[in-house]
Design a protein that fits this description.
The chain has eight helices and two strands; from the N terminus they run H-H-H-H-H-H-H-H-E-E. The chain has 180 residues and is mainly α. The chain has a two-stranded antiparallel ribbon.
Length: 180
């Protein structure tokens, strides 16, 4: 059984981590959630009767673990000392997300062509990975990889360019260009 768990871990680790990171923005929390998922897999692998449904079972377990994470996070209380740092009249709808989105859109053209094209098709034309892979004559995983790499390159460029301040909801409320 130990070998089976190790092979599942090796095969699905990256895929599940990518899935978790799409739903949980905190990288450390995403890693923790992934560990939780595999603890659950280790404890409950015997309950999986049909091995052909392993991937479905893993994703369901992962999704449930993400839901648990948000449920626990929601019930955590904020220390009164932390409330002093939050302006009382802050309107959570006022943020700079749209302004930053425009910057990101202009940065798209700085990406290498293959990454830009894949991301444009996925984000702005709403195409699915299967459609992108057919249009660009690449594999399905190639489509996913290009989009993931494009997002990472955009994030790196953005983080090199500016420092951001976020509200308690993760919205950008202030940014400042980094000094060169």
């Amino acid at each position: 059984m130990e070998e089976n768990i190790n092979s599942i871990w090796n095969y699905f680790r990256s895929e599940l981590l990518y899935y978790i990171k799409a739903k949980v923005k905190d990288e450390y929390a995403a890693e923790d959630i992934l560990q939780e998922v595999f603890i659950k897999v280790y404890k409950n692998i015997d309950q999986l009767v049909d091995q052909s449904k392993l991937k479905l079972w893993l994703y369901k377990t992962t999704n449930n673990t993400i839901v648990d994470y948000y449920r626990i996070k929601k019930h955590n209380t904020i220390d009164l000392d932390e409330l002093e740092d939050i302006p009382a009249n802050e309107d959570s709808t006022e943020n700079m997300n749209e302004e930053i989105a425009k910057c990101i859109k202009s940065m798209l053209y700085e990406l290498p062509g293959k990454y830009e094209e894949a991301l444009q098709l996925y984000e702005f034309k709403g195409m699915k990975h299967k459609e992108i892979s057919e249009k660009l004559n690449i594999s399905l995983s190639g489509s996913k990889t290009r989009i993931q790499r494009a997002r990472n390159k955009l994030k790196e460029t953005l983080m090199e360019c500016c420092e951001f301040e976020y509200d308690i909801y993760g919205n950008i409320i202030e940014y400042q260009k980094r000094k060169e």
